[in-house]
Amino acid sequence: MKKNLFLSSAALCLLSPLNSSFAAEFDPQLNGIVSFEIQNDWAYDSDDPDADVNTLFTKIEPYLILSFNDRLALEAGLVLEPVQDPDAGDDTEFSNEGLYVQELKFTYTGDNFGLFAGKYNPTFGTAWDLAPGIYGPDFAEDYELAERIGFGGSYAFGSEQVGNHTLTGNAFFLDTSVLSESTVTKRGNTDKSDGGVSNTEDLSSFSATFDSEELAGVEGLNTHLGYYNQSEGDADIGLDNETGYAVGANYTFPVSDDVDVTALGEWVGIMNSGGSNDDLNYLTTSLSLTVNNHWNFSASYTNRDTDVSGGSDVDDRVYQLSVGYAFDNGLAVDVGYRGSEENNVDTQMMGALVSYTYEF
Predict the structure, then answer these.
(1) 66 near 73, Cβ under 8 Å?
(2) What's the Cα-to-Cα distance from 109 to each of 15, 28, 159, rounded to whole Å?
(3) N or C: which end of the chain has fewer CB within 10 A?
(4) Is residue 23 part of a domain?
(5) Rounded to 5 degrees, what angle do the CA atoms 26, 149, 228 make?
(6) pTM over 0.85
(7) Residue 310 has what pLDDT?
(8) Cα separation of 285 and 320, whole Å?
(9) How far apart are CA 231 and CA 241, in angstroms?
């Protein structure tokens, strides 16, 4: 805990401007965005009888930005969602929901660079965020890097001819501070003795990403390259570092005045998953249409192949279809279908999502 407090204090010193103009420009403002979601998942047919359940839950994500001036800010991201798994075979309604701090970081924004330090989500991959539909990010969320403590920086450059590019680097470890706990429903503190990749309480894990917008001057074409190396946990014995590679692209183009199409593809390879000798490969593809800036239609498919050391490979897949409508007041309603095969268990699901976004 002392190490985490020291890191936060060091971050403030690092990010604060080193001239007297900071005091003169001190003008704190609080802004934020809050997303509200209520989702119902009905697994109506599964090879596993315990998976035939109905789950109703909420997810609320406030993101707050306290700007000290136009450069320096303190940002906090909170999440309210289920933090414990229900008993097998049980239908649930707003059960096991807990509130926790996902991000709490200082940020400094320069003319073409940024610095950040604290608890945050290091960059790696994009499909867990960009894949469309209610269930589009499923599987891809496996490799999202979240709730790490550390620091990083980004540098932006580009031109109209080559596009806009951002290079980002992160050094981090898994959060083992008091912020790893949740309230309302307790999920338990993460401890160094729990092991797991990047659970080291030192900055021996890192990631680097290279993001491009309007690549080569092509409007609507965005790409992502990523790499990470997560050290084996200090409590792990006989395990290796986990490494990840990401290559992705998405392209949005108009087919008429009222219809835009977005195609997305991303491959991610995870070597020595969890420090073991197993390797995983993810391939996510999707196609979505936006009509009149209100209607959305999407289809996505993700394959997750696990190369099991000394055993049989596991080939999992998830596919989904969704349709939704977004109102001008920030309210949106979506319905979707999800089919999956995980560990040779087929499951069919229908779902509905009501969401609202409030900004201030």
Answers:
(1) yes
(2) 9, 15, 20
(3) C
(4) no
(5) 120
(6) yes
(7) 86
(8) 11
(9) 5
Structure-token match 């540098």, residue found: 155
Q: What is the mean pLDDT of residues 74-84?
A: 98
Residue 303, token pair as written in the block: 């394959």
Residue 263 located in a structural domain: yes
Full domain range(s) for residue 67 = 2-18+29-359
Judged on CB neighbours under 10 Å (0-12, 13-18, 19+), 292 is: exposed
Averaged over 204-213, what is the pLDDT? 98
- Assigned token pair, 357: 């976004």
| Sign of the CA dihedral with 3 first, then 8, 12, and 14 last | positive
Q: 9-18, 151-160, 314-323, 331-340: which range is least confident on average?
A: 9-18
Strands 221-230 vs 205-213: parallel, antiparallel or unpaired: antiparallel
Nearest to 142 by CA among 308, 351, 305: 305
24, part of any domain: no
Q: Are the CB atoms for 105 and 75 separated by under 8 Å?
A: yes
Mean pLDDT over the full length of the chain: 93
Tokens describing residue 297: 């239609």
The identity of residue 148, as a single letter, is: R
Mean pLDDT of 250-264: 97
Return the closest-CA partner of residue 206 out of 230, 226, 225, 224.
230
Rounded mean pLDDT, 90-115: 97
Which SS3 state, helix, strand or coil, does residue 22 take? Answer: helix
The tokens of 2 are what?
Answer: 């002392």
Residue 19 has a pLDDT of 47
CATH number of the domain that 133 lies in?
A: 2.40.160.10
92-93 vs 54-67, strand pairing mode:
parallel
Distance CA 140, CA 149 (A): 22
